[in-house]
């Protein structure tokens, strides 16, 4: 009788379903149409990833869409036959839907940078700034908060008051037992331009004047 199975994403899955009897039972497999057991439907014919041979269900390069409940049925024309249900879980590394995005903030305003990773729990998330590890305790302006979701985790990096040095590339890295992924936020801190300084007159001819100045930040 099949039991619940877990497979790493991208691996090849094999689930046996054996039944004895005379005449020899014919074994077939069906998949639940939803995320809960029930409403089983025949497997898609001619699927390159899913096939049944001698009562064994084979799924090659298994992915999240293969996850769910499967029904194994054995019938030989005598009696009602036998059936068993197995739950297939696909264990995946973390994944970010958005790999890179821009975010702006006015200098002196608060800002919150957020990244959401999907995958098998537990998931750990760390933050880098310009490819260096960001430790919230090293700067009182930073606070990191993490929330566990049903299908992953969210990490919020709060900046109490944005400064010029926060114009940087922030990267969150999510890791679980099956791998890791990262997502980056290009933070742009905006501010009112400073007054130019070191103004000098280089040349003055008739109605024309040529000047130069030092560029502010």
UniProtKB/TrEMBL annotation:
Coiled coil: none annotated. The keyword Disulfide bond applies. Residues 28-47 are annotated as: Disordered. GO terms for molecular function: axon guidance receptor activity. It comes from the Eukaryota. Pfam families: I-set (PF07679), Ig_3 (PF13927). GO terms for cellular component: axon; neuronal cell body; plasma membrane. The keyword Transport does not apply. Residues 1-88, 94-186 form the Ig-like domain. PROSITE patterns: IG_LIKE. Keywords: Disulfide bond, Immunoglobulin domain, Signal. SMART domains: IG, IGc2. One of its GO terms (biological process) is homophilic cell adhesion via plasma membrane adhesion molecules. This is Ig-like domain-containing protein. It comes from Cuerna arida. The lineage of its organism: Eukaryota, Metazoa, Ecdysozoa, Arthropoda, Hexapoda.
